[in-house]
């Protein structure tokens, strides 16, 4: 489960670990506790707004004498974190239609293609048929990488010729899924064009084309964000949200970062549910996000 998968995150002194260290072995509340928590939250990339939100709650509880000892402060912090992380529908991929079409977006290098491979692996293991659409037609390497995943997982990969129209490739993939009765289409997309405006226009166009192939598609638009990008991930969320109806987040590379606090910022400031977290490069290193379990797993 998530607990086992996140061992690395805990061991790598993730931000929950640093918070925990603040409270370890102390019964009496340190008069500077709020400042200490603030420092951990800010340096873990929780973001200024969300940090203030959390601290306000702690401050007012302290002033009402509701928190008798450090254990209580700690409990309160964990509860607030859980509440923030419970936005939206939460973990997993709702399969709403046959086929359910999932558009996967994000800037280059965040882990889009890897996430698609991991998701395909899970879906296949659950007995679903998956079609992969190589919609990042601007990068031959991305198409190649998706192909490798397709072979490994044992699912169809629809690709176009070099420089093919990405909308057309994904259209074909949806058509293929309809013809063969497949359950899910996972569509990779470009993560970089000449300008941000270009990229967003291109992605909107691709989404419209998907809708022409199948009414209601894309059913899910997953934004992949790299936890090690910290506050940049927050900016990417704002940018993509403006251009596309993002339905959920996949937060990758939570292994090996002390900045995992960005997950709180994303939930609090963007109101987007985290569907999955990536905790490594292997096929099995993707976990459905479950807020309570996540917080508990981080705290060990
Ligand atoms: P894309 O450009 O968004 O498609 O990104 P890729 O899927 O090519 O991934 C970029 C790099 O990040 C690759 O080396 C992946 O193996 C790595 N990667 C993806 N997800 C994770 C993760 O959860 N943890 C770690 N440590 N690496 C990851």
TrEMBL record:
Q: Name one GO molecular function term.
A: signal recognition particle binding
Q: Where in the cell is it found?
A: Cell inner membrane; Cytoplasm; Cell membrane
Annotated catalysed reactions: GTP + H2O = GDP + phosphate + H(+)
Q: Under the cellular component aspect of Gene Ontology, which terms does the record hold?
A: cytoplasm; plasma membrane
Q: What does the UniProt keyword field contain? A: Cell cycle, Cell division, Cell inner membrane, Cell membrane, Cytoplasm, GTP-binding, Hydrolase, Membrane, Nucleotide-binding, Receptor
Query: Any idea which positions bind GTP?
Result: 106-113, 188-192, 252-255
Indicate the transmembrane segments per the record.
none
Domain SRP54-type proteins GTP-binding residue range list: 273-286
Does the record carry GTP-binding as a key word? yes
Record membrane topology? Peripheral membrane protein
Function summary: Involved in targeting and insertion of nascent membrane proteins into the cytoplasmic membrane. Acts as a receptor for the complex formed by the signal recognition particle (SRP) and the ribosome-nascent chain (RNC).
**What name goes with this protein?**
Signal recognition particle receptor FtsY
């Amino acid at each position: 489960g998530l607990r086992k998968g996140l061992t690395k995150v805990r061991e790598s002194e993730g931000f929950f670990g640093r918070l925990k260290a603040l409270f370890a072995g102390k019964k009496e509340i340190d008069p500077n506790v709020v400042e200490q928590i603030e420092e951990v939250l800010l340096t873990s990339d929780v973001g200024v707004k969300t940090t203030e939100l959390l601290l306000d709650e702690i401050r007012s509880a302290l002033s009402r004498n509701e928190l008798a000892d450090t254990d209580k402060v700690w409990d309160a912090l964990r509860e607030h974190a859980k509440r923030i992380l419970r936005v939206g529908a939460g973990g997993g991929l709702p399969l709403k239609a046959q086929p359910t079409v999932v558009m996967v977006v994000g800037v280059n290098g965040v882990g889009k293609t890897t996430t698609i491979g991991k998701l395909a692996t899970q879906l296949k293991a659950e007995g679903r048929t998956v079609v992969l659409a190589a919609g990042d037609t601007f990068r031959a390497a991305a198409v190649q990488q998706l192909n490798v995943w397709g072979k490994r997982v044992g699912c169809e990969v629809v690709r176009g010729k070099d420089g093919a129209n990405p909308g057309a490739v994904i259209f074909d993939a949806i058509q293929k899924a309809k013809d063969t009765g497949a359950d899910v289409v996972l569509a990779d997309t470009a993560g970089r064009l000449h300008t941000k405006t270009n990229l967003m226009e291109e992605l909107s166009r691709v989404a419209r084309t998907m809708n022409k192939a199948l009414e209601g598609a894309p059913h899910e638009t997953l934004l992949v964000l790299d936890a090690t990008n910290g506050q940049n991930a927050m900016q990417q969320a704002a940018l993509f949200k403006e251009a596309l109806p993002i339905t959920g987040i996949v937060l990758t590379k939570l292994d090996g970062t002390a900045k995992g606090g960005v997950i709180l910022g994303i939930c609090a400031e963007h109101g987007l549910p985290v569907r999955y977290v990536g905790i490594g490069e292997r096929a099995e290193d993707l976990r459905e996000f479950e807020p309570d379990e996540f917080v508990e797993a981080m705290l060990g």
